[in-house]
Each structure stands twice: as structure tokens, then as C-alpha cells.
Amino acid sequence: MNKNLLIFIVTYNSSFRLKLILKKIQKIKKINYKILISDDCSNDDTSSYIPNQNKKIYININKRNHGYGENIKKCINFAIKKKFDYAVMIHGDNQYDASYIPKLYKIIEKNNIDAVTGSRMKNFKSALNGKMPFYKFIGNYILTRIFNLYFNTQFTDAHTGLWMYNLQSLKNIRFNKDRKSTT
Questions:
Q1: Is 70 exceeded by the pLDDT of residue 140?
Q2: What is the mean pLDDT of residues 90-115?
Q3: Is 112 left (phi over 0), alpha (psi -120 to 50) or beta?
Q4: Which stretches within 13-162 are classed as H helix?
Q5: Which of 2, 103, 150, 181 fits as disulfide partner to 77, beta carbons 3.0 to 4.6 Å?
Q6: Model's pTM, two decimal places?
């Protein structure tokens, strides 16, 4: 069964990279999806790369910077409110290849799991060749090791910007606490 997918792109000063991501997403076939671009009050020309006449694209431009986590929560709340089955988050910095979205979709749908992630760090050479700054590479490596030790997990990239969520699972989690979503 082909369920509804929301691909949400969280952006902050993403500029032309947004255009590159959208081009990759447009190549995705056989999945019923819509896109939400959620810009967190960028102070560059990111908004000039947001298409405004596309029925497949929702647009949210925050009037003030909410921060990374709050922007993600707004997007997830939007996906739940619009009754999507799954949502995938991809960073607007183009460090994650949107062409992997169908693979994530297949994994989450086939295995009926809560979430699945992409990784820049599965192959260290690829992470560095993908223009990941060396200081971020070292930091990510160390923090991922600590995360895995503490939570007894086996992430290769605990700071990934490519997540796919089964929204049925998230409906039961109170991740908003006392805050109200404004999307």
C-alpha cells in the first residue's frame, strides 16, 4: 500500500542548496509525497529559492528563529495535523542525498518500525568527500560514540539530518510539552 509521505526540509541560510535538494526530490517516483519547506528566519537569500507556485509544496517561513529542534517539531505537528502516514526530515544544507528517501520509505513501510535514519558516517571517506568540515567530522565521531555508549545503540551518525518517521508512533508521544505548535 502506498501511504502518504511528507518530505520536510528544514532550512536556515540554505540558499542555492535548497534548489539542489528539490531537484533530487522531483526524481522520486512511485511514492505519494508532498513537500514542506520550513525556513527558520534565514537572513540570506534562501527565500528566493523557494518555489511559490507548486501544489506539491507547502511553505512555512518563521518570522523569528525558533531553533533547529522547534522547527522540526513544527514540521512533525504539521504532518500529523494534515494526516500524513510518514514524514521524512532532510536538512537544507544538502549534506544528505534526497535520492535515498525511497530506500528509507521502503524500510519503514516493510518493517513497520517507528523511525529510520540516513548516515553520512557509515563510510568515513564519503563524509569527508561530501564536504563535511573536518572539525564536524571529529565532533560527530566522538559524540556518536558517547551517545552509543550511553544509550546502548549502534548509530553511525547520531547527528544525522535525514530521518524518516512513522507518524502513527509520534502521535502518542508528548514531545511538545507545554508549547503549542504555530504551524
A1: yes
A2: 92
A3: left
A4: 17-25, 68-81, 101-111, 124-129, 134-151
A5: 181
A6: 0.88
